[in-house]
Amino acid sequence: MMSVSQAMQAYISGLEIPSCPSDANGDRCGKCTACDVRRQRDALRRHMEKKFAVAEFLISGSFKRRTAIQPLNDIDLFVVFDSVTEKALRGAAPRVVLKKVLDALDDAYPTKEKPKAQSRSVNVEFKGTGLSFDVVPAFADGGERYVIPDRDAGAWIQTNPRRHNEHATEANEASGKKAKPIVKALKSWNSRQSSKLVRSFHLELMVYEALRTDPGSYPAGIAKALRAMSTRVLTPMPEPAGVGPDVDAGMTSSERDRASKTFAAAADIAAKAITAADCGKTGEAHHHWFTLLGSAYPEEGEAPKSGAPAVVGTAGSQSPDPQNRRFG
């Protein structure tokens, strides 16, 4: 039987997006997920450049911040239009711009499943690899800021994905490089709920706030983050670059209350797991972590004689991160 530390490391490693095995040699294998991302990104770039004057392309979101998990789905791709040549687009309504991008991708991939317009992007899926991209139209807005369309708000909003990357890196360093792995663990846990409790970027930012110092271990960090999130989720979460809307904008009070209670219940199970491990009851500790994290945790463990806690999960309300709102 593995130790809790070994099992937790194996669990988190299983969530990682593997890098290209040939990258160290300055080459590409052409067969891995990273190579699939590059190839399909480059194809999207060629298609978009046929329709628009493009100044810059950049991968952003969780893939860029290295907080994405397996299976890899949506990858944010900023398509930054030339502000002079595409001046008419900059003055157009967000829904108009998104429709033009949608039409361009529909023309580029006539035999694939139809691209889908979302609030701030257009999603295009590649069946062969299972990857999909959220193509985000954008314009430079000075410094490292960009403006992107928000169809639901009917306005262009500011964002700074490079600052988001820096914020994630700084937070991970402050936590002894444990924050990003713990973000991945809790993203996986969040995805196992009957409907996601919070948007992925919201969860990520709450973990960074909770782990301002090294928690000492992954189990301790998960328990600490869950306990902190049970109260943090009750109040708005500002966008970390200080230029865009709150990342949890639109989250209702009932959704916050549901998330708070579920985070607290999960923190209770994590605390039981840590107590069991501290008492030398490794099998019981594994049981609690298996109950919390699911079958991807590699040790099922042994239920305590007094009975096992119920699986943390709630049903009912719609996910706060529905497909048409996905971004970040």
- Strand tally is 7
Contiguous helical run count: 11
Structural category is alpha+beta
Largest sheet properties: 7 strands, mixed
In whole angstroms, the N-to-C terminal distance is 38 Å
Oligomeric composition of the shown chains:
single chain
Number of domains: 2
Q: What share of residues are in beta strands?
A: 5-15%
Residue share in helix: 40-55%
What is the 3D form? globular
The chain-level mean pLDDT equals: 90
Description of the molecule:
The chain is α+β, with helices and mostly antiparallel strands and 328 residues long. The chain folds into two domains: 4-15 and 164-325; 32-159, 2-Layer Sandwich (Beta Polymerase, domain 2), CATH 3.30.460. Helices cover 44% and strands 12% of the residues. It is built from eleven helices and seven strands. It has helices spanning 4-13, 33-51, 61-65, 87-90, 94-108, 161-174, 179-191, 200-210, 218-232, 253-278, 282-293, and strands at residues 54-60, 74-81, 116-117, 122-125, 132-140, 146-150, 155-159. Strands 1, 2, 3, 4, 5, 6 and 7 form a seven-stranded mixed beta sheet that branches. Helix 7 packs across helix 9, helix 9 runs antiparallel to helix 10 (253-278) and helix 10 runs antiparallel to helix 11 (282-293). The longest helix is centred in the C-terminal third of the chain and has 26 residues, at 253-278.
